[in-house]
Amino acid sequence: MSNQAVIQHLESFIPLKGIEKALLDERFILRHIKRKEKILVAGEVCRYHTFVAQGCFRMFGVDDKGFEHNIQFAAENDWIADIGSFHTQKPSQLNIEALEAGVVLQIKQQDLYFLYKNIPKLNLIFKVLIELKYIELQNRVLQNFSSTAEQRYLGFLEQYPHLSNRLPNTQIASYLGITPEFLSKVRKNIQSKG
Amino acid sequence: MSNQAVIQHLESFIPLKGIEKALLDERFILRHIKRKEKILVAGEVCRYHTFVAQGCFRMFGVDDKGFEHNIQFAAENDWIADIGSFHTQKPSQLNIEALEAGVVLQIKQQDLYFLYKNIPKLNLIFKVLIELKYIELQNRVLQNFSSTAEQRYLGFLEQYPHLSNRLPNTQIASYLGITPEFLSKVRKNIQSKG
DNA sequence: ATCTACCCTTAACCTAGCTTAAGAAATCAG
DNA sequence: CTGATTTCTTAAGCTAGGTTAAGGGTAGAT
Fold first, then answer.
1. CATH architecture classification, B4-120
2. Which chain B residues are closer than 8 Å to A84 by Cβ?
3. CB distance from B120 to chain A under 8 Å?
4. Could you tell me which CATH number the domain at A4-119 has?
5. Which of A7, A35, A54, A160 fits A103 for a cystine, CB–CB 3.0-4.6 Å?
6. Which residues lie below 8 Å from residue A7, measured CB to CB, with a gap of 6+?
7. Of all nucleotides in the shown strands, which has a C1' nearest the CA of B168?
8. Average pLDDT, stretch B63-72?
9. Which segments in chain A show pLDDT lower than 50?
10. Which residues of A162-174 are buried (b: 16+ CB within 10 A; e: fewer)?
């Protein structure tokens, strides 16, 4: 396991020259993460942009009453960071936690900015990456407004089949914005229909 | 009124050379839009990325029951487009409508791609622009999950004071994901507290 | 292998926000 | 200026989803 995973991922957008790959290889840091380990803790600055080579992570906020709300999951070949905190280097309100043991490739803000300067096409790649995430998030906002919990759950199963088999229902419920108890009711109801 | 508005806006991120400005000036199209005119209709492809020079627009989806749900507002110096449809050139499920008469500066996908190639720093600028929008949207998802309609309404007034004076409450309600009737109740309740 | 910590489900009761309806006030187009 | 269209509000009844509590099941750590 090495930085090759992230380089390969970036090359799936645009091929990179040998020198560029060497620069990338130099700046990414490989870390092994244990289950339940946090790679971002609310109140601290998000120091790394994280590429998931192996495992599954969630980013979540905690409300006034202490309830957790999942904003995003990230499994293999996905990126995760509190982008606001990462760019401003101000404290984050979010947490990123491993749902399984895993391996990540991380880069610091100043190193990523160095790479943006020295490998201009990275701007294009990361623009596309965030555009894709933006579209996903926008669809989610629309779904949340215009459909019931049951429709959203079915949509989740369809859109993220690899995740729905892998995550406990409590985590899915938190992502859908409902309680685990209600998700249980929804699932029962779906089953009874066939 | 001319393309200067958009060039000035882009220069607020990174200065541009004379040649670059000329290229930009060539490719943007100025249009006057009437109140209630749609610049994107669901079912059609989103052909333009739109910079708002004057006026106020909303992007919205329509659900199974015919209810409209506002996803985004855009006033002066903001951008609006269904980014998914714009990039894939597949039909959009969204509409963009003028809430007031206004002036927009629009660019076609192929022209924007031409500019990305010929003015590489535009990739950086548009990456930053979409990152900012992404952060906004992410905060919105979190807010929707972790607070009541009243808290969200107060948050909206604080975050978008220029919009809250300008928009009818029906539009704000649709953005907050509640009915106008319930917003009315919320407003009454806020007033009675002082 | 066993203990512990989650995880899933059920059920009774509760509440934030929706629906429907209808009138008054504001705004827009001609 | 005027009629037509939106917008805002109120109120009564309703429903999707939350809360609380409790039992059984499952998976991780040692």
1. Sandwich (2.60)
2. 135, 138-139
3. yes
4. 2.60.120.10
5. A54
6. A16, A21, A24, A25
7. D7
8. 95
9. none
10. ebeeebeeebbbb
